[in-house]
Amino acid sequence: MKATRAKSLRSQVEKWLAPRFPTMVRVTVFSRTGSCNGRYVCVESLEAAGTRALFFFLHEGRCWSVLPPKAESPKMAADRFAT
Q: Which of 22, 36, 43, 66 is most deeply packed, by most CB within 10 A?
């Protein structure tokens, strides 16, 4: 349970915006990627220096990360054709 909490969207936003956690943080985009239909969000924070945007991607196991999931590569299935 603790590992899942560490990869929640909230915990990832707090991690990447620390130590100066801004007072205003909001999700500006919530959508799906075209290639693998994965989910992503864009989180914006308003700071004295300006606006900062970060993208977070949903991985297997409902974990969020700033890195997109690794694309699945094509696989050979020779066993289907063996007689």
A: 43
